[in-house]
Every structure is written in structure tokens, then in C-alpha cells.
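Progress note, sequence design subtask.
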């Protein structure tokens, strides 16, 4: 039996942490953005993501590096982010960690073959033109992550 560490090493193209997503309560997004800006973070993207996500997102860049903080504000009561906030006793908090890959499809195929429980059946459109899929927090019964993971392919990676 292989370990999760060995299985993840088999996932093609994991490059770095793309972003850490933080859920914020409705009406608090702009205040949170200002608080991060006071720390020197810079807003680089803002978008409403509809479909099953139902969130307003803001991406904040950490320095000049590739790592981002993603603030997620639920748009509806059915938003998974709203359900997370409810599970947290009405507080925001860590929503997920996202890893950048060269190919979402290759990563999905490798993770599926290694027995990971995937939330999405196939890569799908994400915000800012990305392609994404999510990995269940209890993905591995032998070594569950305990944290929602997003796999992100940036359209720029196709050009490299």
C-alpha cells in the first residue's frame, strides 16, 4: 500500500500553492479586502462565480510571487461557502487550499487512478479563466486530508 505522499508525487505537474481560500460572511468582503491591503496585499482580480459555487471572489497577491489569498463571499444561502460558514458557527474561515498544475485533466486522471475521491467528475471552468476540480477532504480513508483541495490549471500554463 502506498502513502498519500507517494501518490501525490505521481500527480503530474503540481507546481506550487496557487491560493489559500478564506470564506467571509455576506457583507464583509470589502472590509476584509481593506484589512489585507493594510498588510501590503494587492487586489488582482474580482469576479462573481455563479453555477454551483455562488460566490463573489477577490484574489489578493502576496508580494510579487505567484501565491494568492482568495476571499470568498457567498451570494446565496445555497452557496457551499455559506454552508461552510454555517458549519463554523456563523464565522468565516479556511475554505480550501489550491495547488497549481500544468494540466488539470492529467492531474484528475492520475488522482482518480490512485483512488482519490474527487468531487468533480471532470475538470470545469473556474474563475479568471482557469480550469479546476475539487478533491474531497475525506478523499483517502487511509490518510484523509481533512481539508478541501482545489486543483487549478492556469490558461497561461498551456502556452509554456
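Output:
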Amino acid at each position: 500500500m502506498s502513502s498519500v505522499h507517494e501518490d501525490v508525487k505521481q500527480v503530474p505537474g503540481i507546481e506550487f500553492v496557487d491560493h489559500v481560500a478564506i470564506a467571509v460572511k455576506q457583507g464583509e468582503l470589502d472590509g476584509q479586502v481593506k484589512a489585507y491591503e493594510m498588510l501590503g496585499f494587492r487586489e488582482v482580480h474580482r469576479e462573481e462565480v455563479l453555477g454551483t459555487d455562488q460566490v463573489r471572489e477577490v484574489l489578493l497577491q502576496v508580494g510579487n510571487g505567484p501565491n494568492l489569498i482568495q476571499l470568498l463571499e457567498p451570494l446565496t444561502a445555497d452557496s457551499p461557502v455559506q454552508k461552510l460558514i454555517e458549519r463554523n458557527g456563523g464565522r468565516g474561515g479556511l475554505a480550501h487550499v489550491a495547488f497549481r498544475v500544468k494540466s488539470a485533466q492529467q492531474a484528475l486522471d492520475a488522482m482518480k487512478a490512485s483512488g482519490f475521491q474527487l468531487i468533480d467528475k471532470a475538470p470545469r471552468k473556474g474563475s479568471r479563466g482557469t480550469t479546476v476540480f475539487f478533491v474531497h477532504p475525506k478523499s483517502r480513508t487511509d490518510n484523509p486530508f481533512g481539508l478541501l483541495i482545489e486543483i487549478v490549471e492556469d490558461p497561461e500554463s498551456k502556452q509554456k
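The CA atoms of residues 53 and 80 lie 6 Å apart. Work on this subtask will continue into the next period as scheduled.
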